Amino acid sequence: MKVINKSFNRWAILFILFNFSEGITFATDPFDKTQRYLKESMSTPQPTKKSTLSCHSTQLSIAHETPFEQIKFIGVLIGKNSTKIFFINNNQTVMSANEGDFIAKEKLKINKIELQQISLLSWQKARSCQQPEPINIKL
């Protein structure tokens, strides 16, 4: 019985060593000038710059991490002194915004809220910061 346990232990140790040796990776030497070339050529490509303007890059927006396509408008509240629009994102979080607020990742400005439609201003395809593209959404 002891012979079986010793051979089993040897196989278990060999199995464990083999599995750990598979996970060992070799890194390039940062002090070797010949390997620096390889490191630079294997770097990830930089994303191309979008052609959008940065007119309101410092402006805070509601739902700033949610792309506009993922926002669903669910209601309008028209009061005597203020008008609000209610919407949800993919996480089913209900949010509200007023006229003049910026929403979504694209920082669209709410220009006008009406009972049947919302008017937004977009700078994504605009030629200048003074001439935003109007977007009208029917409710």
TrEMBL record:
<protein>
    <recommendedName>
        <fullName>Pilus assembly protein PilP</fullName>
    </recommendedName>
</protein>
<keyword id="KW-0732">Signal</keyword>
<feature type="signal peptide">
    <location>
        <begin position="1"/>
        <end position="27"/>
    </location>
</feature>
